[in-house]
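Hey,

Quick one before I head out. I ran the complex with EPU overnight. Inputs first:
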Amino acid sequence: MLKIQENVALAPYTTFKIGSQAEFFAVVKSREEVLEAIAWSKLNKKPLVILGGGSNILITKKIRGLVLKNEIRGIEVIEKNEDYALIEAKSGENWSRFVNFTVERDLYGLENLFLIYGTVGAAPIQNIGAYGVELKDYFYHLRALDLKTGHEKIFAARDCEFGYRDSVFKHRLKNKYFIYAVTVKLKTTPDFKLDYGSIREKLLEQGIKEPYCRDVIRTIQEIRTSKLPNPALLPNAGSFFKNAEISRVKFKNLLKKYPQLPNFPATKNKVKIPAGWLIEQAGFKGKKIGPVSMYAKQALILVNHGAAEAKHVLALSRKVKAAVKRKFGIDLEEEVRII
Ligand code: EPU
């Protein structure tokens, strides 16, 4: 039975520890409760807002309508043969617990995505990625409930229109579906991606040429903890901005002025520039403005030093964007969902 509360503070449900109130709030633990919420929202003419792990969101105002905290859990092996396995996780499952589940069963693919905060249901919305791997590389399909009718629809990878930190659920189908379960297709033999940054180098330092899964996981953990703040100690929402994608022409011009400009190929005509580098060059790395700063070890992450409100975050974000625009002529785009 769905239990709906009124005027609930949302800050504790976010890793930023910032948030106003929800007009109405309920925890959902099953498909039936989602269907109940859909019926309630229709009857009361109130929109539904879905909250997963709260790890990629900045809540700036009171949320009108019914906020659903997704706690639908469960992981299942759907199919397994010599070559691959299909594993389905319900959307309220913790992402890293899901990665652990696959690793423990010697299934390969998700190692580099270990320790990303948030839920399984949020993963396809922004096509989570780290260290050269994105969810889309191992995504099989997802099941979602239409927020108007409650009917289930299956989305294959091409229906999701995945891009860099992007999918159809951020655009045309924004707030139209409740993602209920996600299935990935994993390899039964090692399929490591070790070429990003210092992964291979760190393994070689330990004399490991042919790593086991546990070596890769441990290395990812070491790299992440050395650079990324633990939200339990220093509240944050991961990368605050996306890396910038600029045209080749603009890139060539910038390179004349900044020969050391780090860059990665993006698409045929575009080059990706790490936003962390741009922010650092603009003088904001570790710079504290009131209760917030861009993190001293990774300038892409905006951290809350305690008692910050959304207005402080937005003010720093505006300053950073203006400084990067002034220095490089590049517009940074928020990666965090701002509502
Ligand atoms: N850099 C700096 N200064 C900084 C930070 C970065 O100069 O303060 C430069 C360095 O040149 C470095 C490059 O940026 O080589 C890339 O940095 P890093 O490998 O730390 O990754 P990122 O591009 O800053 C992205 C993701 C992260 C993900 C890492 C690793 C985005 C928006 N962010 O960051 O994802 O963990 O790659 O794959 O694409 C997240 O989405 O919340 C997140 C943490």
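The radius of gyration is 21 Å.

Talk tomorrow,
K.
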